[in-house]
Structure formats: C-alpha cells, structure tokens
Amino acid sequence: MDMVYKKSIETRRKILSVTKELVLQKGWNNISVRDIAELAGVKNPLLYYYFRNKQGIADHIFGSLILKTLDYAEKEVPFKDDGMLSHFLYVSLYYRILLENELYQKLYMESTHPFDSPVENVDEYDLNYMVTKQFDEIIKSYGANLDNATLKAYTISAFSVATSIFRNIIAGNLELGYKEAMFFVTRFWILSAGIDEKIFEEKMNKAIEMALQVDLESFVSDED
Amino acid sequence: MDMVYKKSIETRRKILSVTKELVLQKGWNNISVRDIAELAGVKNPLLYYYFRNKQGIADHIFGSLILKTLDYAEKEVPFKDDGMLSHFLYVSLYYRILLENELYQKLYMESTHPFDSPVENVDEYDLNYMVTKQFDEIIKSYGANLDNATLKAYTISAFSVATSIFRNIIAGNLELGYKEAMFFVTRFWILSAGIDEKIFEEKMNKAIEMALQVDLESFVSDED
Questions:
Q1: Domain count of chain B?
Q2: CB A72 within 8 Å of CB A117
Q3: In a shared domain, residues B64 and B163
Q4: Structural domain span for residue A99
Q5: A163 and B115: CB-CB below 8 Å?
Q6: Which of A37, A58, A70, B178 has the greatest CB tally within 10 Å of its CB?
C-alpha cells in the first residue's frame, strides 16, 4: 500500500477514535473541532481536509455503523435470498446498538439533527438510495407496486418514524420495549404497501432473534 | 377591559405582526430579536417578557394557526358528531395553508426544527395532548383499542411523517400533490390501527373537499 495513502487512513482513523473517546468523556455538545484536532495530534486545517465540519465527523461515524450493519445482514441473509428478512436484520441490529451502546446513543441524541430525513441531507453514503432500493425490491417481491414518488415517500416516512420513536424512547418519553418498537417502526409501511401481516410478523420475529444473538461489544469495537 | 391587560395584548399582537412582516421581507434566518423589537417599538427585555426567545415567537405563530384550524374544523364538523372527519378537516386545512401561504411556508421551512415531535418540546398549547385525545377517540369509535404507549407512538409518528413529507414537498424533493400527500400522511396510522380503508377514504375525500372551499386569504388574515 502507498505510504501516503496509508498515513491518510491512519490520520482519519485517529480523528474518529479520538472523537469517540471525547464524546464518552464530555458529550458531543461540549467538544470542539479544536479539542478533537488537539487530542488527535493533527492541525485544524488537516482535520477539515478529512471532514467538512464537526457534524461531518458524527455523520461519518453513523454512516460507517449503518454500512457495517448492512454488511452484517447481507452476510447472514443475502438480500437476493430474502430481502425482507435481510432488511429487517439490518434495521434491528442498528436500533439495538442505539438502545444498548452508550457511545452511539449519546452521539445519536446529541449530534443528529433531530429528524432530518435523508432526502434533505447531502448523503455521502448513498444510504437513501440503498434503502429506497431495498423497499422497492421488498414491495415488488410481494406483488405490490408503487410509483416512484410514493416509494420515496415511504423511505422518508420510515426514516422519520424510526428516528422520532427511538429518540423518544431513549429520552424516556415513550415506554416501548425494543421488540415492540421494531414492530412499530416497520409495520406501518409494510401494511400500507399491502403486504400480508403474517409474513411480516414471521420475518420481523426472526430478524429480532438474529439481531439479539450478535455480540454487540465485539461488533462495535471493530475499526471503521 | 383592564387597560394594562389591553395594552399587553396590543404589544404582543404588534410583535407578532411585525415578525410576520419581517419574515416575508427578509426570511426568518435573517432577522434577529433586536430587529423585531425595534420595528415593534418595544425594548428587548419586554419582548422576552412575552416570548421565551426568538423560537418562541415562531412557535406561537404556528400554535395560533393550529388552534384556528382546530376551531374551524370544530365549527364545521363538531368532533363529537364525526371525529374522523373533524380531525381530517383540521389537518387538511392546516397543510393546505402550508402549501399555499407564503408566510407560513417560509416560517415552517426556516423556523421549525426539522422533525421535532411534540413530545420532545415544551408545548404551550397542549397540542400533543389534544391530538393524542383525537386519535384515541377516533380509534375507539371504530372499535379498535390501543394501549397508551402505542397511542403516543402513533401521535409522534403522525407528526414526524407529516412534517417530513410536507417539508420534502415544499423543498421540491418529493412530487406528491396536496391530495395524495394528505392521504399518505394519514393512511398509515388509520390502517395500522385496523380501521376500514373504505371509511377512511370517504372521510378523507370529504375533508379535503371542505378544506379546499375555505377562502385562505381571509382565513389567515384574521388576527391571532
């Protein structure tokens, strides 16, 4: 590997790990780009070379986490074999991490624009595209069909429902357990799209069961 | 009426009308509390006596608009006579105003935290309570029954779905017409609660028809 490239990856990784450390110690709102740069041993301008701004660091951390849960789901249940189960496994694992992992929970509550939908954001990871594509294929595979605008509306809604429900749970405003919450945030678009409730329940139960088997500590500790 | 009280109402009204004027001229993000106070002819501390902060002024303007649409719906269709129709009329009128009225649209896009749900906010108007109560009674009147947490989850979701959908429509990110959008943002919780789709469609069509008959210009021009 090219030395310059390798150094660049290391610097980026250092910035991310230092940010995580600082978030756990002081909270996202109490740290500055200067604090991060200082502890990472890089100059401010270099940090801005890697990340647009402070928010860009948090977005990157969540983007990586989402990609990691998507990869995990794809490895366990390839999307082409069972799209609904694969998709549910990815979301179940992602929200289990937000409910159980202190770092991601803190960062989620403090750094995410409360309920920005992916459509309104610059999305470096094309997550919105991926999720829309997953919805489309799941819906088609169960014989339903939606025009593009409605499909996009479902993606936007699913994102904002999940975000508002989990934020309220974490804030202590809403008493739903993990399993109930997972059913709640997925059921509405499945039913609206006309997919059979029995199939949905079977897949969702299976996905939750699989997500609960993941060793979270080792899962999140791997490098981004 | 007590002179002091009357003066207080007038000052408050002046602050609100000046804010609306400034928003139309310069946009919400480009004006300060100082600008508002200056044009209203009041001192800064007095403005803070009436409103918590700048955001408090926008929240008041939306709170008033919501109360006004609720009042209108109640007058046309008393909630006790037909809860679903009355509720749909209120939301249809409210979102028609956001789509058609320049002032409210600008203020909505610039001043609202993108998807704050009412549960996370201090809510001076107890809107969350009112809407939750409406949902509860509508759902009960169609024979369904939800525990409190699920009911609250529906209120939170309905709010965040409507906000994300209409923000994306206004921003030009989502091509749904007014009628399609109204069906989209209401249908999911109605179907999830197990209410018959035919009844829903009939009420929603009727509510939209009624909301379209309102003379918006005169409706919004009345004093708050």
A1: 2
A2: no
A3: yes
A4: 55-221
A5: yes
A6: A70
Q: Answer yes or no: do B181 and B164 share one domain.
A: yes
Residues B177, B224 contacting (CB under 8 angstroms)? no
ipTM given for this complex: 0.82
Q: Domain check: are A78 and A27 in the same one?
A: no
How far away is chain A from the Cα of B163, in angstroms, using its nearest Cα? 9
- The shortest C-alpha distance from B18 to chain A (Å) reads 29
Which of A52-56, A180-184, B210-214 is least confident?
A52-56
For an interface test with A, which of B119, B164, B176 has the most A Cβ atoms less than 10 Å from its Cβ? B164
Spans of chain B, pLDDT less than 50: 114-115, 117-124
- Tell me if chain B has a CB within 8 Å of the CB of A152: yes
Element housing B50 (H / E) = helix B44-50
Whether residue B205 sits in one domain with residue B98: yes
Residue B214 CB partners (closer than 8 Å, separation 6+)? B72, B93, B96
Q: Are residues A9 and A113 in the same domain?
A: no
Q: Which amino acid is at A154?
A: Y
**pLDDT confidence of residue B159:** 87
Identify the pLDDT of residue B104: 94
Instruction: Place A101 in a pLDDT band, splitting at 50, 70 and 90.
Output: very high
